[in-house]
Amino acid sequence: MAVLLQIRDAHKSYGEQTLLDGAEATIIDDVKVGFVGRNGAGKSTLLRILLGDEELDSGEVIRHPQLKLGYLRQHDPFEPGESALDFLMRDSEQPDWKCGEVAGEFELKGAYLEGPVKELSGGWQTRVKLAALLLHEPNLLLLDEPTNFLDLRTQILLEHFLRHYKQACLIVSHDRAFLNATCAHTLDLTRGKLTMYPGPINAYLDMVEETRIRDERTNAAVVSKQKQLQRFIDKNRANANTASQARSKAKQLERLQVTEIESEEPNAFIRTPIVEPRKGAAIRCENLAIGYPDHTVATGINIEIEYGERAAIVGDNGQGKTTFLRTLVDSLKPHAGSVRWGYHCDVGVYAQHVYTSLPPDQTVQQYLEYHALPGTPLQAILKVAGSMLFRGGAVNKTVSVLSGGERARLCMAGLLLGEHNVLVLDEPGNHLDVDTIEALATALVDYQGTVIFTSHDRHFMKRVATCIIEVRDGHVNNYGRDYDAYLFAVNKEIDDGERERNASMAKALPGKPMKAAAKSARRDERKIRKEQSKTEKAIARLDDEKTSLSKQLLTETNPDEALRLHNEVKELEEKLAAAEERWCELQEELESAF
């Protein structure tokens, strides 16, 4: 196995914040690594260093001479009016069939492949970017939070591709389900140190917890033994008869050492509003139609959500999940029908990208004081701030200096300071780290109110959801209470689609390597004409050889030589007939297809 990247004694700081402190790691080819760590630990900074966009303060990054990095672009690389296929061919300089083959891995076909790429939703544009990235054939993919804002279907398609991808990957993600499905190794960045673990993230987290528990138990036993020895020493060292025993025990005591256990980094402890459980319908939609002034997204919606339910709104990007949520909270007016909330419903809303509109000059404490209920004691506000990791001087930070994850936690803290008995949460886990997402899931499971939410994090969805509501193809339906059943159905649909696509491609080109052409499975006209031209030359050559041998046969008097020439003429006639037949097949293909 070749070493693609080696990080040696890496140091990187921003002011008083140390991100890398003698960090070391090695990435080899053909291995997929999940890169984890707290928000602000320095994961994205390290990726920028590997890409050459930033420099280490000290240390080095050693790159293999054949290293070819691939990085998922966040900006818009598309030109006005071009199709996804046009973009893929322009960006990669690969032929249409190759672009179609990779695009097919992400279900990019038909109008999605041939229509204007700028008219696609963000999730479909991400699929196009992923296909473009892979067409450059990197031997190390760097993916920074690839599942953020990707719908479930696109996540599963990306998983399917990565599982069969033969090159190395380094994937930053807070989505444990995605990392477990794609990565065989885990790289952790904590307190400036890199730790490579030869296993998926769940096994790594279990190992960390087991090590901590084992070390704590060992230390407890050591401390107990130390106390026992110290008591013996204190009691016997002054006695002449037992002084030698006391000295021996003192040597034993010196050898006993506890294992140093680093103090755990603070975890978010999220407190949801304390509400009284209730019965009946929290919200009822009757003959509801949703959408925007210029188009309708879904019609005929008849949905009822009970008090205490945790309803997950699912569906592909662009199908209308956020539109549905916005209609429920009256941010959008319905085209038809009605939305009726239950009696005394107090609705709190956490919307996508809400953290980008926070007042930049307010401090954390000022923001929370403004959003807290009148009369809320300062100590209660600071307690909620501390639960979201704003402790000590952090409450005096202004919004302008907070990271995306810190702003998301601040918005969530402001929401939780209320007394809402209904929470409507649009992607609450985006930009939160693994531990904070886990804390939020635990809090919502214990919450006695009603939760209506969207999320692309399958681990979070599975833990929290008690019912699944799917938005798809202009309809909204209650799928039932089992998220695993919904996930199984989506996986089966994708698997069936892949099998159908592979079978159709194999049928179109029997005996040939499968190629997904962009517009159809037909062969390229240029290739047909090229083969036809070669066949014509072969026919001419064979005909010349046959003519020459036939002339020799007419004048040959030696019986043995005449027999040999006769056999050769017969062989040439068979080859000539086959070549002429092939030329006719090619001509028919040209006439029928073009």
Task: From the structure above, extract its key features.
single chain, 594 residues, alpha/beta, Rossmann fold, six-stranded mixed β-sheet, AAA+_ATPase, ATP hydrolysis activity
Mean pLDDT: 82
- Helical percentage: 40-55%
Number of strands: 18
The fraction of residues assigned to DSSP E strands is 15-25%
Enumerate the spans where pLDDT stays under 50 for 5 or more consecutive residues.
Answer: 508-523
The name of the CATH architecture of the domain at 281-481 is: 3-Layer(aba) Sandwich
Helix count, DSSP H or I runs of 4 or more residues: 18
Indicate the structural class: alpha/beta
Instruction: Let me know the CATH homologous superfamily of the domain at 281-481.
Output: P-loop containing nucleotide triphosphate hydrolases
Can you tell me about this structure?
By secondary structure, this protein is of the alpha/beta class. Among the domains are: 3-68 and 138-204, Rossmann fold, CATH 3.40.50; 281-481, 3-Layer(aba) Sandwich (Rossmann fold), CATH 3.40.50.300; 525-593. It contains 18 helices and 18 strands. The strands form 4 sheets. It has a 6-stranded mixed β-sheet, sandwiched between helices. A 6-stranded mixed β-sheet has the order 14-15-16-12-17-18, sandwiched between helices. A 3-stranded antiparallel β-sheet has the order 2-1-4, with helices on one face. Helix 6 links the parallel strand 6 and strand 7 (168-172). Helix 2 (84-92) crosses helix 3 (96-104) and helix 11 crosses helix 12. The model is unreliable at 508-523 (pLDDT under 50). InterPro entries: AAA+_ATPase, ABC_tran_Xtn, ABC_transporter-like_ATP-bd, ABC_transporter-like_CS, ABCF, P-loop_NTPase.
